[in-house]
């Protein structure tokens, strides 16, 4: 048990920055540039962990606790998510609730740390994050409701079909809607265009990027690592639905899983390159579109009753 | 397990009959803890008023309230129950009026009294209807009677507003946001933590007595819970006064409890006892949890208000440096009320969510839609509550002080002693209980589930809860893994940074030179996007803010969220009633002697009639 937990964490910790590198490589390709190496995020994180931190006079113990809670939260929730052939070490009925609320816990501390700096920039990001998380939670839970109806289970492993591949030709329409909705939620939760721009720190564009503006050194490294791992874990929830292949051979399953993850990274990179970030009052509309897609998936599922 | 105690009481139809059962035990636990904690806190809170105000009156009514609360949950007879109910209403009225020099407090108290008595009137009707059908005023005897479905439905419909006024269901909640800020903080804590729960207790007791209610009752209760919950938290988001915000949050949590009760009724009507037990048990556990964390939050707010002499969040800021212990305790309360893991709010919400999901998979179509609505409402409430409490915690305790209300350091450079130990110890106790239930929930959960089973009239231990206790065990172990990981990460950071203290500087302001505390986000600006998104649901009013003229001068803007029930329903209704009564008043006879003559004539008439 302990061994499988450690193996799970090892995979998440070592693979997460790689996908950030793939996304920036894809964006560079679209822009006609050569782009940084795929391993650049590793070098960045290594550099950050060797630096010291500077703290603001206004900050309190909440600011120190923020990065720790974010990384712990994402590591604990990764234990409930299957990674290809690697089964989730902790599986129980209702683990989707713990997943959603661990995300909420790290969000609480991120917003509180942002307010702790006493700067209006971080307050801006905090206020926007608080609002958009309401809508993305709605969309996420609508997806959970539909998946629970489809798979008759409230455990993440069974819901995303990690145990038994869901047959697309039987449940196709609902699954397409769920995948689209979950993809938009993925973009919103992980600070991607069209919701937020991960490259810049301008007040017009930032939600997540500005909440971490005052972090430096090891704390900033923790925050970046937490964000990378969150993107990895939330993408790996999407992969078993899109690539429902179960050969039984561990190596082949892991290959399919990594292929699916690279596919998602490619799509994210393509979306980031081909779209501009939405005006802020439209981001709410986008998240409501995600909710509407999931709601239609719910209606389609109910039709089969 | 029922312990029954009875005395002869010289009141017609009355019987001093007390009964302690599992349902009452759940509420009694919450009452006991909060009465003691708020009482001890009250000693410290009232110390500054020692020579200036009559404290004896206040503590007298506090004890009367405590006795009345205990009698309400133990009462086994209608007259005793209603007597204790009235005693509670009146003692809370006198407690609210501690600051009766302020007209707003007097208005708040009077509004509370009227609202309470409107509810009590409906309760009288309902109880006499039940006693008529059952032939007795004793709850035990009534529970053995059988009520025809139409009558049961009517009783339920009378119970909802009757108890709902006290509980704070949405349309009839208007007294809550006025009474809570007006009362002293320990009274607000008690009011919000337990006095409101007596309304829920009343509904539970009626459901127990009725036994079987029509199917639509579950849907009604669920809808009321959804509406109260979502609108409550939306109103809370729009407030900028600390205690008024917490009052609206009580309405939201009553909504969550109502969702749990509605789910329980749905489970019972579809003959799925596990789901019903989850619904009722989750709601009862939330009763205890809410008493604990809402009490903690109100006591923390009271500490803040006592130190800074204001409850306006936009005048505060940076209090975590002045009152570090209070900020930690308030944070624990805030994390609990948002339902975040490691604390008790998550446990009761987990049970209700689990029940809703089981209902989603087990009920026919109507139930599926109802459960889906319940799940979405709970998710939305959780996210909005998170937005609200990050706003509160961030605006009050973090950042820079926004006005001179925030105490500054003393001449020697240190902070004055934070607050009196009378006030700190109850808060520490409540925070400890929140963490205990969050990390070791089995005792409290078993208590709540046995209350739920009793409510469903099942013998104790008849429902198998392993299906939910096994996931709960996983949740708790993951919570401990989280704590261990957090400690490990702190140690790793300490190792990487080395032993020397890190450099300290000003917050990076992106090169702007004139950045001050006033440029921070305030409570109104923090929730601006949310208020804008919900503007068709909330009555959001903005006054001023326009700059006019070629050489614009200073201008003034104020925003407020007006309570829709109050403004569109009750205020016009009461204004209409006042207009009517003024009309009658114009024509009234102004001589007392004529009224005395009427009484005299009527007495003569009665005597003559009876003697014949």
What would you note in describing this structure?
The complex is a heterodimer of chains A (305) and B (612). Chain A has 305 residues and is mainly alpha-helical. Chain A has one domain. Chain A is built from 11 helices and 1 strand; from the N terminus they run ααβααααααααα. In chain A, α7 packs antiparallel against α9. The longest helix of chain A is centred in the middle third of the chain and has 32 residues. The radius of gyration of chain A is 19 Å and the shape is globular. Chain A starts with a helix and ends with a helix. The model of chain A has no long low-confidence stretch (mean pLDDT 90). Chain B has 612 residues and is mainly alpha-helical. Chain B folds into 3 domains: 211 residues, no CATH class; 268 residues, no CATH class; 75 residues, no CATH class. Chain B has 22 helices and 5 strands. In chain B, the strands form 2 sheets. Chain B has a two-stranded antiparallel ribbon with strand order 1-2. In chain B, a hairpin with an 8-residue loop joins β1 and β2. In chain B, α2 runs parallel beside α8 and α8 packs parallel to α10. The longest helix of chain B is centred in the middle third of the chain and has 36 residues. Chain B is globular, with a radius of gyration of 26 Å. The N and C termini of chain B lie far apart (55 Å). The interface between A and B is large, with 79 and 83 residues.
Short description:
The complex is a heterodimer of chains A (305) and B (612). Chain A has 305 residues and is mainly alpha-helical.
Radius of gyration of chain B: 26 Å
Largest sheet of chain B: 2 strands, antiparallel
Element-level helix/strand string of chain B: EEHHHHHHHHHHHHHHHHHHEHHEEHH
Radius of gyration of chain A: 19 Å
**In angstroms, what separates the terminal alpha carbons of chain A?**
39 Å
């Amino acid at each position: 048990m302990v061994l499988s937990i450690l193996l799970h964490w090892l995979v998440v910790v070592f693979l997460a920055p790689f996908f950030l590198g793939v996304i920036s490589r894809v964006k560079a390709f679209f822009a006609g540039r050569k782009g940084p190496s795929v391993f650049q995020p590793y070098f960045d994180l290594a550099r950050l962990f060797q630096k010291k931190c500077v703290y603001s006079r206004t900050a309190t113990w909440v600011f120190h606790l923020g990065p720790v809670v974010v990384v712990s939260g994402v590591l604990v929730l990764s234990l409930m998510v299957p990674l290809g052939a690697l089964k989730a070490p902790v599986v129980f009925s209702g683990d989707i609730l713990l997943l959603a609320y661990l995300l909420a816990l790290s969000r609480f501390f991120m917003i509180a740390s942002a307010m702790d700096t006493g700067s209006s920039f971080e307050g801006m990001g905090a206020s926007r994050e608080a609002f958009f998380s309401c809508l993305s939670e709605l969309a996420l839970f609508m997806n959970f409701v539909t998946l629970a109806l489809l798979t008759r289970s409230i455990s993440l492993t069974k819901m995303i079909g990690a145990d038994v591949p869901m047959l697309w030709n039987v449940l196709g329409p609902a699954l397409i809607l769920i995948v689209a909705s979950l993809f938009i939620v993925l973009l919103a939760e992980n600070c991607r265009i069209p919701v937020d721009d991960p490259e810049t720190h301008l007040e017009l564009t930032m939600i997540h990027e500005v909440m971490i503006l005052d972090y430096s050194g090891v704390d900033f490294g923790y925050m970046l690592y937490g964000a990378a791992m969150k993107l990895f874990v939330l993408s790996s929830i999407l992969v078993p639905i899109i690539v429902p292949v179960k050969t039984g051979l561990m190596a082949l399953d892991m290959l399919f899983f990594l292929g699916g993850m690279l596919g998602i990274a490619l799509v994210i990179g393509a979306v980031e390159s081909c779209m501009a970030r939405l005006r802020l009052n439209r981001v709410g509309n986008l998240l409501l579109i995600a909710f509407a897609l999931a709601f239609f998936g719910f209606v389609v599922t109910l039709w089969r009753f | 397990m029922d312990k029954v105690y009875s005395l002869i009481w010289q009141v017609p139809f009355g019987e001093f009959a007390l009964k302690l059962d599992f349902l009452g035990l759940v509420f009694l636990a919450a009452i006991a803890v909060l009465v003691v904690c708020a009482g001890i806190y009250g000693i410290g809170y009232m110390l500054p008023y020692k020579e200036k105000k009559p404290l004896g009156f206040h503590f007298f009514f506090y004890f009367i309230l405590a006795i009345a609360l205990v009698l309400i949950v133990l009462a086994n007879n209608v007259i005793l129950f209603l007597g204790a109910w009235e005693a509670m209403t009146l003692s809370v009225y006198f407690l609210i009026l501690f600051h009766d020099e302020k007209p707003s407090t007097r208005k708040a108290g009077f509004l509370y009294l009227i609202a309470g008595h409107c509810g009590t009137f409906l309760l009288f009707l309902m109880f006499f209807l039940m006693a008529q059908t059952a032939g007795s005023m004793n709850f035990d005897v009534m529970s053995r009677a059988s009520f025809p479905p139409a009558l049961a439905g009517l009783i339920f419909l009378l119970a909802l507003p009757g108890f709902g006024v006290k509980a704070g269901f949405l349309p009839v909640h208007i007294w809550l946001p006025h009474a809570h800020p007006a009362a002293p903080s320990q009274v607000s804590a008690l009011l919000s933590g337990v006095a409101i729960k007596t309304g829920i207790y009343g509904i539970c007791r009626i459901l127990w007595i009725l036994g079987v209610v029509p199917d639509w009752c579950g849907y009604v209760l669920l809808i009321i819970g959804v509406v109260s919950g979502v609108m409550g938290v939306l109103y809370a988001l729009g407030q900028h006064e600390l205690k008024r915000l917490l009052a609206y949050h009580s309405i939201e949590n009553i909504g969550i409890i109502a969702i749990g009760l509605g789910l329980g009724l749905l489970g019972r009507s579809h003959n799925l006892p596990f789901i019903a037990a989850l619904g009722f048990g989750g709601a009862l556990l939330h009763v205890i949890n809410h008493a604990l964390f809402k009490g903690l939050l109100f006591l923390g707010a009271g500490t803040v208000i006592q130190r800074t002499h204001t409850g306006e969040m936009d005048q505060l800021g940076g209090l975590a440096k002045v009152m570090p212990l209070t900020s930690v305790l308030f944070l624990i309360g805030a994390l609990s009320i948002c339902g975040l893991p490691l604390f008790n709010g998550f446990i009761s919400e987990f049970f209700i969510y689990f029940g809703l999901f089981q209902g989603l998979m087990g009920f026919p179509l109507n139930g599926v839609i109802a459960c889906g609505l319940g799940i979405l409402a709970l998710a939305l409430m959780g996210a909005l509550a998170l937005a609200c409490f990050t706003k509160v915690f961030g605006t009050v305790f973090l950042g820079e002080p926004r006005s001179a209300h925030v105490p500054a350091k003393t001449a020697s450079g240190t902070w004055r002693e934070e607050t009196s130990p009378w006030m700190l110890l109850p808060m520490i106790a409540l925070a400890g209980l929140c963490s205990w239930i969050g990390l070791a929930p089995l005792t409290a959960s078993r208590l709540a589930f046995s209350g739920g089973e009793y409510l469903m009239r099942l013998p104790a231990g008849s429902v198998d809860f392993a299906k939910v206790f096994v996931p709960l065990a996983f949740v708790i172990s993951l919570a401990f893994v989280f704590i261990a990981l957090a400690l490990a990460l702190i140690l790793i950071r300490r190792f990487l940074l080395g032993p020397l203290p890190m450099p300290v500087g000003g917050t990076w302001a992106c090169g702007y030179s004139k950045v001050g505390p006033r440029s921070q986000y305030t409570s109104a600006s923090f929730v601006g996007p949310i208020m804008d998104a919900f503007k068709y649901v909330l009555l959001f009013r903005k006054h001023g803010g326009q700059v006019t003229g070629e050489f614009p001068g200073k201008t003034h803007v104020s925003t407020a969220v007006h309570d829709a029930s109050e403004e569109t329903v009750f205020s016009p209704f009461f204004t209409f009633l006042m207009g009517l009564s003024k009309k009658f008043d114009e024509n009234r006879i102004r001589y007392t002697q004529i009224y005395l003559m009427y009484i005299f004539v009527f007495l003569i008439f009665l005597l003559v009639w009876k003697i014949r």
